[in-house]
Amino acid sequence: MSYRIGLVGKPSVGKSTFFNAATMNDVPEGAYPFTTIDPSVGEAYVRVECAAPEFDHACTPETGFCRDEVRFVPTKLVDVAGLIPGAHEGNGLGNQFLTDLNETDVLVHVVDFSGTTDAEGEPTEGHDPRDDIDFLETELDMWYLEILEKGIEKFSNRYAGKEAAIEVELAEQMSAFRTNKDEIKRLILRLDIGFDPIEWDPDDREALAREIRTETKPMVIAANKMDTPKARENYEAITSDPDYEHLTIVPASAHAEKALKRADEQGAVDYRPGDGDFEIQGELSADQEAGLSQIQEFVHEFEGTGVQRALETALFEELDAIAVFPGSANGEPEDGTFMRDCFVLPEGSTTEDFAYFLHSDIGEGLLHGIDCRSNRQVGSSHELEHRDVIEIVSTN
Ligand SMILES: Nc1nc2c(ncn2[C@@H]2O[C@H](COP(=O)(O)OP(=O)(O)OP(=O)(O)O)[C@@H](O)[C@H]2O)c(=O)[nH]1
Ligand SMILES: [Mg+2]
């Protein structure tokens, strides 16, 4: 199992550019709406400080790669088609794209902070990015609400006047959102609306749809096109607007990330993805040099291009996932390999979860784990932490 991060947003905000920058793919990008129709899935990476130097060995990665003591751990990134207002009613490319979102674990909402595209992705000026942030949330909420209403209707038809649990029916109806009855019960309690849906007014229903959406679709906002002056103005305004305080907003330039990765491949710069600096190498044309020094100012100011940071914030902060290295207790290489793997696991994973993650046989034969830093045994229900190095001892 590997995590899937979904890129969402209205057309022309830079989703495909962000996708290409992160995955070094080459899907079409264009200054016109609906450049993307079919979703693409690619491999992106999240950074984790490599644990190998603590054991005085060099790592030999098989999953992902390591660059100057930073591991780049693979994760799936999905570039979906642009959403426009009314998508839940089938507008634009409609419902299918909402459905694609259900196959992701966390979302990066790419927003055009430059204000140069309107609600449908057509060129304009002075568009307020706040409208786009609001629209996407509303669109998702309406989609959830529609399915929630279906669940309430079924429940009412089936159980009028009888004892039954609404959370069971809703969990079944909304299973595609990866929710369950316990979660729904908790959210109903949190909203304090009672367990009889007949008593719920439209506001209660909407509030519940929103709660379920925010629980099941954690989201980070990538404030894209920050390489333009207008985007900076909007960024200042929105990050100091109390109505938007609850959001996680990462300033980003997909253009800058793409340019730096290309330049690194060509040997024009030495750039480790995500870094807040890079070195120019060799002879460059005056144009190239001017372009790169602009990007350099940008990454100095924002401590990177924001592309890596948006993905890592989604996985490690919004989802609270952890990265774990399988290790060997004596801290020595085996068969000439060392710290081949690094895996991303859900928050709260235990030694046993990790063993089953590696293989069901390993899970079934689990005896205990060993924390390779301290050489201490850890029990099967021991909760793992980010960057733990663990050997699993199993009879299988
Ligand atoms: N200035 C600036 N422009 C960008 C940036 N990222 C993307 N763009 C431009 O924005 C336009 C749209 O980019 P796409 O990546 O095709 O946008 P999209 O969100 O995938 O659009 P659809 O597939 O139509 O939904 C292109 O002209 C890109 O060059 C950025 O970081 N800075
Ligand atoms: Mg696209």
Automatic annotation (TrEMBL):
Coiled coil spans: none
Q: Which SUPFAM superfamilies match?
A: P-loop containing nucleoside triphosphate hydrolases (SSF52540), TGS-like (SSF81271)
One Pfam family hit: MMR_HSR1
The answer to whether UniProt assigns keyword Nucleotide-binding to this entry is: yes
- How is this protein named in the record? Obg-like ATPase 1
Q: Does the keyword Protease apply?
A: no
Q: Name the source organism.
A: Halalkalicoccus paucihalophilus
Q: Which GO terms describe its molecular function?
A: ATP hydrolysis activity; GTP binding
* Domain OBG-type G, first and last residues per copy: 3-272
Query: Which UniProt key words apply to this protein?
Result: Nucleotide-binding
InterPro entries per the UniProt record, alphabetical? Beta-grasp_dom_sf, G_OBG, GTP-bd, P-loop_NTPase, TGS, TGS-like, YGR210-like_G4
Listed under GO cellular component are:
cytoplasm
